[in-house]
Write a structure and sequence with these properties.
By secondary structure, the chain is of the alpha+beta class. It is built from four helices and five strands.
């Protein structure tokens, strides 16, 4: 990851996610969300939530970003950022936490803006004892 001061740590990913927020398709919830991931090689991959009238077919921004990254040939991501149009402090849902845990190290940072600035957590903090396949 880029070397950043504590003040702007994660801001490059938050900016990348915010740039995609208008592309979200959220006519049912009116809750657009965007995610930006940094792949191991420094490539930034983004995704947005895409809703469907059959709610079970909806995909969250985080999974959209992971799947787009995998389709582009990436298998590991070293950081993530999640932003929403409404409300501060949006973190990934449980399903997205599980998917992220498969493609990121437990200590990988996840950034999200809130009322006090940029918050930082990790995959392990979001999903302790994540399910993983037996080795």
């Amino acid at each position: 990851m880029k070397t950043l001061s504590p003040i702007d740590e994660g801001s490059y990913l938050i900016d990348a996610a915010r740039a995609q927020l208008a592309k979200a398709y959220a006519p049912y919830s009116d809750f657009p969300v965007a995610c930006a991931l940094e792949a191991e090689d420094g490539t930034i991959v983004t995704g947005v939530n895409v809703e469907n009238g059959s709610y079970g077919l909806t995909i969250c921004a985080e999974r959209c970003a992971v799947f787009a990254g995998v389709a582009a040939g990436h298998r590991r991501f070293k950081a993530a950022a999640v932003v929403a149009k409404k409300g501060p402090g949006i973190t990934p849902c449980g399903a997205c936490r599980q998917v992220l845990s498969e493609f990121m190290d437990p200590a990988a940072p996840v950034f999200y803006p809130d009322d006090s600035g940029v918050r930082r957590t990790t995959i392990a903090q979001l999903l302790p004892d994540a399910f993983s396949r037996p080795t």
